[in-house]
Amino acid sequence: ARLVVLVSGSGTNLQALLDAIAADPDGYGARIVAVGADREGIAGLERAERAGLPTFVCRVQDHPTREAWDAALAEAVAGYEPDLVVSAGFMKIVGKAFLARFGGRTVNTHPALLPSFPGAHAVRDALASGVKVTGCTVHFVDEGVDTGPVIAQGVVEVRDEDDESALHERIKEVERQLLVEVVGRLARHGYRIEGRKVRIQ
Ligand code: GRF
Description:
Elements: E1 2-7, H1 12-23, E2 31-37, H2 43-50, E3 55-57, H3 66-78, E4 84-87, H4 96-102, E5 106-110, H5 122-129, E6 133-140, E7 150-157, H6 164-189, E8 191-194, E9 197-200
Helix pairs in contact: 1-6, 3-4
This protein binds 5-O-phosphono-beta-D-ribofuranosylamine (GRF).
Pathway: Purine metabolism; IMP biosynthesis via de novo pathway; N(2)-formyl-N(1)-(5-phospho-D-ribosyl)glycinamide from N(1)-(5-phospho-D-ribosyl)glycinamide (10-formyl THF route): step 1/1
Function: Catalyzes the transfer of a formyl group from 10-formyltetrahydrofolate to 5-phospho-ribosyl-glycinamide (GAR), producing 5-phospho-ribosyl-N-formylglycinamide (FGAR) and tetrahydrofolate.
Binding site for N(1)-(5-phospho-beta-D-ribosyl)glycinamide: 11-13
């Protein structure tokens, strides 16, 4: 399967996918054909370039409207003819134009146990809420914010001494493994989305 991965930051989830594919290029069942970002100058793009991958940047401020940006992102992604799009720390919400083309085959990874703590501050919100366990979720992207059908989740305990970055780092250790495992399974076995349920063949 052909993957396009979208990033906005350090790209350690992208790196986990790159490493898993490099370790077993034939067995993994997928390869990354391009990496896209919503901003320049991030480690995620450097990781892609180091791996010799094509990259593209689609910045909101370069477009007259949010809808125009969404359409441009869809166009850029479509150019690489992906089977699956992986949002790995991509910090923008895609819209109708993007979902018209890639809805049902775009997965996102989120550092909380959805539907708890959606949005851009999941780890901070979990800490503030006093929960004893949190975790990460890989889900299909729909028109909402972190609301699409859940594919897999991983649980991470919250420790008394945790601050946001310590807890997020511990979540990311689980998240990277979960994402690698889920993307490989979707790519190798195919899947069906039935309402809120995801069936992997
Ligand atoms: C991940 O925890 C992702 O779920 C969240 O931001 C983090 C991105 O990490 N949206 P990285 O860029 O993959 O290192």
